[in-house]
Amino acid sequence: MTQQGADCRLMMHEDYIMTNTILKKAIRSLLVLAAIAPLASYATAYTPAKFGNAETVLGKQVTLPASFGEGVKTVAVYCQADVMTTGNINSVTCYENSPLVSMQIVTESALKSATFTPATIDGKAVPVRMQLRVVYSLGGTQAPIVLLPNLGTLQAQHGTHYFAPQERLDTNDWYANYSTKEHGDGKLFFAEGKMTRVMANIEADGKVETVSTIEAALRKQADAASIESSLKKSKFIPGFVQDKPTAMHYIAVVNYQK
Description:
Elements: H1 3-41, E1 46-47, H2 54-61, E2 74-83, E3 89-95, H3 104-112, E4 119-121, E5 124-126, E6 128-137, E7 145-148, H4 155-158, E8 166-168, E9 187-188, E10 195-202, E11 208-215, H5 221-231, E12 236-237, E13 239-241, E14 244-246, E15 248-255
Antiparallel strand pairs: 1-4, 2-3, 2-6, 4-5, 6-7, 6-8, 8-12, 9-15, 10-11, 10-15, 13-14
C-alpha cells in the first residue's frame, strides 16, 4: 500500500471516530431531554377565578349616588366570594369602612347574580374563595366601577391588578366550623369589632409554607390556634402577577361583631 493510501485510510478512520463520538453525544443529549420532558409536563397549571360578567352586572344594577359625602370621590367595598365550578356565586360577604353612603348591600346583591369565570387546575374547574375589591368613583378619570382581584394589602409590591391567592373549596376547610354554633359568634371576613387574623404564606405552587397569628381577639386564642392548624392543611390557587404564579400571603379573618 502506498503512503498516500495509508494516509487516506487513516483519515477515514479518524472521520468515523469523530462522527461516532458526535452521534453518541447527540443521543445522550436526547436521552437527557427525554428524561426532563416528563417532569416538565407534570407541572400543575393554575388559573385563578376571574370576574366574568360581574362588571357588566354591577353597571346595570348599581346606581351611584350624587355624592359620597363632602370631599369623598371614591368608595371601596371589600368582598370575598365563593366561586363555584359553574362560575356561580354560592355566597358573598362584603365590608366597607363606614362611609356616609353605604354601597355594601347593593354590591353584595349584584355580585350574587353575576357569573364569574371559575378557577382551574390543569384545565379542570375547581371552587375557590376569591377576595376582591369593588371601587366606585364619582367624576375624575377613573371608571365609575372598577373590580380588582385583591384587597390591596400587597399593592405596593405587586401593583393594582394582582390576583390574591384563592383558597380552594374542594378540600377540608377551616371556615366550615363557622357555619355552625361550634365557635360561638364568630363570622367570616372583616367587620366592625374584634377580629382574629391568621396569615399563611402561599408559595407559587399553591402550597402553604408558613402560618402565624397576626391578631387574636380577646378570649379567642383557641380560635386562632384552630385556624392555624386547619390553614396548614388548606390548598390554594397561588397568587398571580401578570399571569405569573407568585408567592404571596393570605389572611384568614374571623370577626366577632355583636
